[in-house]
């Protein structure tokens, strides 16, 4: 139980295009999902907290108009990187809080974004 | 943002050896978590700790919630090649609905067969 999927697993896009990443909790409902980015050999950096049916809460320094988050259902949250630039290239990981395990975070497999 | 002090940064050991890593914080935590991340994957939760002094095992892994609530350690006994990866500690200061975690910088473990 507590399985989280992400799609796509990797994406390469041209500068200026927008990219949507999906995060799904497969066997549980998640009122809260989190979006992280991770640079090589570094720790996870929280970008935003996504609550179903309400606006996401962004961390300081993260542009909400750049990284659009939609948490439309209890099993799906999406992150859209708008007008992507090479500096947005990174590993994006989502997590979902599972009520089965004291609401701890279970992570998706990540999405490798490369912006050319 | 705030981060935990995790050490060592990296370890290279022989198969069969025991491993120990720890995290410390200047703040009191009410939850300590240990995750493992394989290359190109998301972190996987290994052990969760909720009470000061709590000692919990998961197979060959054992973790403890420090009595001061400002530290935690993870031990791996009799390491095997599949233990290779990056181990992260994470902690939570607040109870209630704030599920945000504070992360360590990771311990990279390499195991020589």
Notes on the protein architecture:
The complex is a heterodimer of chains A (116) and B (113). Chain A has 116 residues and is an all-beta fold. Chain A has no helices and 11 strands. In chain A, β9 (90-98) and β10 (104-107) form a beta hairpin. Chain A starts with a strand and ends with a strand. The mean pLDDT of chain A is 93. With 113 residues, chain B is mostly beta strands. Chain B contains no helices and 11 strands. In chain B, the strands form 2 sheets. In chain B, strands 2, 4, 5, 9, 10 and 11 form a 6-stranded mixed beta sheet that branches. A 5-stranded antiparallel beta sheet of chain B has the order 1-3-8-7-6, with no helix packed on it. Chain B is globular and about 40 Å long. Classes of the chains: A mainly beta (116), B mainly beta (113). The A-B interface holds A 4, 6, 32, 34, 41-46, 49, 59-60, 91, 93, 95, 97, 101-110, 112 and B 1, 3, 33, 35, 40-45, 48, 50, 88, 99-101, 103-106, 108.
How do the strands and helices of this protein lay out in sequence?
The complex is a heterodimer of chains A (116) and B (113).
Chain A: E1 4-7, E2 10-13, E3 19-25, E4 32-38, E5 45-51, E6 57-58, E7 67-73, E8 76-81, E9 90-98, E10 104-107, E11 111-115
Parallel strand pairs in A: 2-11
Antiparallel strand pairs in A: 1-3, 3-8, 4-5, 4-9, 5-6, 7-8, 9-10, 9-11
Chain B: E1 5-7, E2 10-14, E3 19-24, E4 31-37, E5 44-49, E6 55-58, E7 61-65, E8 71-76, E9 85-92, E10 102-103, E11 107-112
The helix content of chain B, as a percent range, equals under 10%
Give me the Rg of chain B, rounded: 14 Å
Question: How many β strands of chain A by DSSP?
Answer: 11
What share of residues are in beta strands of chain B?
A: over 45%
Order of helices and strands of chain A: EEEEEEEEEEE
The H/E string of chain B reads: EEEEEEEEEEE
Beta fraction of chain A: over 45%
Gyration radius from CA atoms of chain A, angstroms = 13 Å
Largest sheet of chain A: 7 strands, mixed
């Amino acid at each position: 139980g507590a399985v989280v999927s992400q799609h796509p697993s990797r994406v390469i896009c041209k500068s200026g295009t927008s990219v949507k990443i999906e995060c799904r909790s497969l066997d549980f409902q998640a009122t809260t999902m989190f979006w992280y980015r991770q640079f090589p050999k570094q720790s996870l950096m929280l970008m935003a907290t996504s609550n179903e049916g309400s606006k996401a809460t962004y961390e300081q320094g993260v542009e909400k108009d750049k990284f659009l988050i939609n948490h439309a259902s209890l099993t799906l949250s999406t992150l859209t990187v708008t007008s992507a630039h090479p500096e947005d290239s990174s590993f994006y990981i989502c997590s979902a809080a599972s009520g089965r395990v004291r609401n701890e975070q279970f992570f998706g497999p990540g999405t490798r974004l490369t912006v050319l | 943002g705030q981060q935990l002090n995790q050490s060592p940064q990296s370890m290279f050991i022989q198969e069969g050896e025991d491993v120990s890593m720890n995290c410390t914080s200047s703040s009191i935590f009410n939850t300590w978590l240990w995750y493992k991340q394989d290359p190109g994957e998301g972190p996987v939760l290994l052990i969760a700790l909720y009470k000061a002094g709590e000692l919990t095992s998961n197979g060959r892994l054992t973790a403890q919630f420090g009595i001061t609530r400002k530290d935690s350690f993870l031990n791996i006994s009799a390491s095997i090649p599949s233990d290779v990866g990056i181990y992260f500690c994470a902690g939570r200061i607040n109870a209630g609905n704030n599920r945000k975690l504070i992360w360590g910088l990771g311990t990279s473990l390499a195991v020589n067969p």
